[in-house]
Every structure is written in structure tokens, then in C-alpha cells.
Amino acid sequence: MANHASAVKRQKQNVKRNARNRAARTRIKNVVKAVRAAVQNKDKAAAEKALVTATSTVSKIAGKGVIHWKNAARKVSRLARAVNALD
Questions:
Q1: Which of 86, 11, 9 is CA-nearest to residue 49?
Q2: Which H, E and C letters describe the chain, residue by residue?
Q3: What is the pLDDT of residues 63-86, one digit of tens each?
Q4: Quick one: which of 2, 24, 68, 82 could link to 7 by a disulfide (CB 3.0–4.6 Å)?
């Protein structure tokens, strides 16, 4: 256990941030899964709608620094390619 007040505070902050970051990563997995499922079912309308949600969510989370911005760009790009290939 931490001995200094500042170290105790830092540990509390780390626990809180860890929980928030874990929730954000899970949210990314869920929105990506929704797009992939729509693509799998060849449902272009649902896939496009899910892609808009996924793009927004992934960009916001990258902006907070939970994932790297290039990782976010790669995810969005691959999802968009998959949706556009549904024609």
C-alpha cells in the first residue's frame, strides 16, 4: 500500500481511469461487432447505420487517448471498406 498521501490519491485515480478505459475498449469491441454482423448478413442499410455509430464512438475514444489515433483510423478504414464492398 502507498505510504504518501499523493501516492494514495494517484492509486485511486489509476483505478478509476482503468475502469473507464476498460469500458471504452469494450464499447469499441461492441460497435465493431455490430458492423461486422451487419456486413455478414449482407444488410447494407444496417451496416451503414452501424458504421456511423462505430466511427463516432471509435473517434471519440481515440480523442481521449484510450487507443492510439492511428489504431482508430485503421479500424474505421477497415470497417468502411467492408461496408462499401457490400454493393
A1: 86
A2: CCCCHHHHHHHHHHHHHHHHHHHHHHHHHHHHHHHHHHHHCCCHHHHHHHHHHHHHHHHHHHHCCCCCHHHHHHHHHHHHHHHHCCC
A3: 999 999 999 999 999 999 999 999
A4: 2
Here the cell at position 29 is: 469491441
Provide the pLDDT for residue 75. Answer: 98
Cell numbers of 15, please? 483505478
Domain count, the chain: 1
Question: Residue 57 carries which side chain, given as an amino acid letter?
Answer: T
User: Does the pLDDT of residue 87 top 80, yes or no?
Assistant: no
> Where in the sequence is the domain holding 22, given as residue range(s)?
5-84
